Amino acid sequence: MSPAEAFRHCPRCGQPHPHPGAEPFRCAACEFLFYFNPASAAGAILQGVDGRVLLVRRAKDPHKGKLTIPGGFIDMGEEAEAALRREIREEVGLTITRLDYLCSQPNQYHYQEVTYSVLDLFFFGQAPAQTAVAEPGEVAEICWLSLSEINLEEIAFTSVREALRRFIAARG
Length: 172
Description:
Helices cover 18% and strands 33% of the residues. It has helices at residues 3-6, 80-92, 158-171, and strands at 25-26, 33-34, 39-47, 53-58, 67-68, 71-73, 100-111, 114-126, 139-145.
């Protein structure tokens, strides 16, 4: 179910909505208008000094057990780079100073019976050392892979696969 489909009543006046799933949500009774814009997330392709890329194995759904890059959702009022640095510290214990923009990709994030539209912002940077430590509950395993070892079919999200594809094509 999309967030738009979950709006069956107007959140302002409580009137039933005759067209659940319509975007934007428009209430005929009180003229409340709500746009279902995507959530924002950021991810980092981090390379060690030897050129290998830091990938993490997801410890929880969606896509539990699949590989991805460190990253996560951007909080309200937070800059993408600040959110990404926070997520990298939380997930793998690394402090990253420089991040360069790579690309953006639309994504779908299915969680607890709702499919969220997400705009993923991808960056790349240098890992200061290969001393990353997996955060239990978030990361099941840390993997350092050369560009040629990355199997895109094992990557959790289509947006991350596309970002990695672009990164590998530019450097491979």
